[in-house]
Amino acid sequence: ENVLQPLFGTEQRLKNIFMIFAGLAIFIACLGLFALAAFTTEQRTKEIGIRKALGASVSTLTLLLSKEFTILVMISFAPAAVAAYFFTNSWLQEFAYRIHISPVVYIVSGLIAFAVAWLTVGLQAIKAAGANPIHSLRYE
Q1: Cβ neighbour number for residue 37 with a 10 Å cutoff
Q2: Measured distance CA(100)–CA(104) in Å, rounded
Q3: Residue 57 CA to its chain's centroid (Å)
Q4: Which of 1, 32, 64, 82 counts the most CB atoms within 10 A of its CB?
Q5: DSSP symbol at 131
């Protein structure tokens, strides 16, 4: 084990760099999703107020606001998963002893991406759906 450790030093450093930049990319993506969700809910404040005044539940409004972001995440995840598969496969071809990455890895990463997106957007949607409709309809 001690003999093989220096051989994989480059891969360890590469892994650490990828982990740092992946975390940074996820954080920036969450900030962007949060800003987009805040902008969308601000644009649709009157619609949300009218739906709330007509009896829409918080869960219905949250689902309504989160649906378009779910579609965006699905559209962006499909090419990202394909690109990740090809880059990972290309990188693994350099090793004498290869492993094959299961599709479960991509499914789990997609579910995590959806969970992070739903959490980010859902918090903003619940906040907007739980607001008093009188405040959004006061000047109408």
Answers
A1: 23
A2: 11
A3: 25
A4: 64
A5: S
